Every structure is written in structure tokens, then in C-alpha cells.
């Protein structure tokens, strides 16, 4: 083995060890290069309008496919997973209006960014001069593609990354850096003949295995769509008022999910006590208390109350009521 290979292996081992110490459940590394396989898929997905009103996904097409356009001299993409699966006692009961599990606790952007900054600083202290940037779902990075290339899992039929023995209830983040490291490789797809996610999606957003029409997803309707929700999906959102976990909840691989050890992802104590009547009476003050540090802030108080009314079968404000209020 060449001396340079030994150095890269040592640096890689340090990064993975430090990532684990910071609470990441997994770390994989791949060479920073053009995502040749993903390019036509992304182009076709956008051409079919599956991004809906998420127009930002149409921007920076080249940067989404080549990390070297995001970080000068980029040589490695370090992909990291952080578990957010809540303990059983922290989960909302089935008989209430529901928020996606990822938004129970503190906004993941802040939690993960702090960890990534620490990891990058530790790399600089241990390795020497390292240039790079941290990414947490806030820049044109195809995080699932990089995590797959790094061997952290395969992209399932519901388009989520799935990890053997862990499932899919985790966040994905990246450090793109200008140092060469030892690289991991992808693993095989273990979805097999299973179609539970396709069968369970109420809005048929999974149009075919491995293809999700974002403009039909419950998460899109309850988070991304800023106008009134379309009448043709009335009754299809179940009791989801922010996001949706259905395609993950039914995935057999998520029987391996274990409760996160990240205390910042613990929910506000009042969240699991909320019943439909409480949601209908929610005030701006209660919203702020529950979600001051949560990703639910993204939809805002007006957006959340819009979703609550819609799930209850009520019309938009100002229109005559056609169904009684859920209690």
C-alpha cells in the first residue's frame, strides 16, 4: 500500500470515528464527481412537472449534479445520517391530527449544522488545511444519491434512502471537502417484490416503483403548497396536517428503527396530548409554544390552520361550511 493510501485511510477512519462520537448513525464517503446516472432522471422528473410549485428545484441544475461547482477543488463527499425516530412514548397517538415524526423536536437544520461545523473543525485540526462546506437540505445537493453512492443504503420504491438494519427514519447531510479520502461503494437494492409503499399512498404519489410525483405527495400539500389545497384531494390526506410518514410507516425495513439518542429531537411534552379539538382551537400563542424551534414553522400558523380545516372537511375561510367541525 502506498504511503498516500495509508494517509487517506487514516484520515477516513478519523472522520468516521468522530462522526459516530458526534451522534451520527452512519458515515459514508464517495468521490466528488458528476452524477451521470442521476442526470437524465432529474431532467425527466422536472420535465413532467413533478416538482409542482417547488420551483426552486428547477434552479442550479448543473450544481445539483456536480459538487465541484459548489466547492472549489472538491474531491470528496462525506454523507452522514442522523436518526430522528422518536421513542414510543413520544409518538402521537393514532386518534389525533398528526405531524411528521421528523418535525417533533428542534429544527434539524440547526441541530445538524452545528454537528457538521464541529466535524469540519475537527478535521482541520487533525488533517491540516481542509476546505469545504456543510449541507443540510438547504442547497442544490442530491443527498440521497450521494448517500447511496457512499454505501449508506439504497433508494427504495418510495424514493427514500433505506439502510439495512436501520430503516429510513433519519436525516441526510453532507460535507463536501477538498481532500482525497478512501471511498465507499454502493450496496444492492433490497426492496424486492414489495409494494407496500405504493399500495398505501392515499394520493398515489408513488406513480411507479422508484418514482414519486412530488406534486401529489401529502407532504407537498401540507408544507410546500402555499395556496388553498385542491378540492380533488379532499378526504385523501387522512389526519396529516404537516408532512406524512405513511410510506415509511408501512415499509418492512422500518421494523428495525430504534429511538434516537438525540435529545434535541424530543418533542414538546404537549404535542402528544393534542387531540383534534385542541388542534381546532389552536392559537398563535400555542403554535409558538409548540413549534418555536421546530420545522413546523415552515408552514406557519396560517398554513397549519388551513391544513387542520381541510383535513376536517371544512371549506377555506370565508366559504360556507359543508361538514361539521371535527371534535
TrEMBL record:
Give start and end of each 4Fe-4S ferredoxin-type domain.
179-211
Q: Which residues bind [4Fe-4S] cluster 1?
A: 191, 194, 197, 251
Q: Which reaction does it catalyse?
A: epoxyqueuosine(34) in tRNA + AH2 = queuosine(34) in tRNA + A + H2O
Q: One matching Pfam family, short form?
A: QueG_DUF1730
In what pathway does it function?
Answer: tRNA modification; tRNA-queuosine biosynthesis
Q: Kind of enzyme, top EC level?
A: oxidoreductase
User: Where this protein primarily resides, as one coarse class?
Assistant: cytoplasm
One GO biological process this protein is involved in is: tRNA queuosine(34) biosynthetic process
GO cellular component term, pick one:
cytoplasm
InterPro entries noted in UniProt? 4Fe4S_Fe-S-bd (IPR017896), 4Fe4S_Fe_S_CS (IPR017900), QueG (IPR004453), QueG_DUF1730 (IPR013542)
- Sites where the protein binds tRNA: 226
An example molecular function term from Gene Ontology annotations = metal ion binding
Q: Which residues bind cob(II)alamin?
A: 64, 137, 158, 161, 172, 219, 244-245
Q: Which NCBIfam families match?
A: tRNA epoxyqueuosine(34) reductase QueG
Q: What does this protein do?
A: Catalyzes the conversion of epoxyqueuosine (oQ) to queuosine (Q), which is a hypermodified base found in the wobble positions of tRNA(Asp), tRNA(Asn), tRNA(His) and tRNA(Tyr).
Q: Subunit structure of this entry?
A: Monomer.
Q: What is this protein called?
A: Epoxyqueuosine reductase
Q: Which organism is it from?
A: Hymenobacter oligotrophus
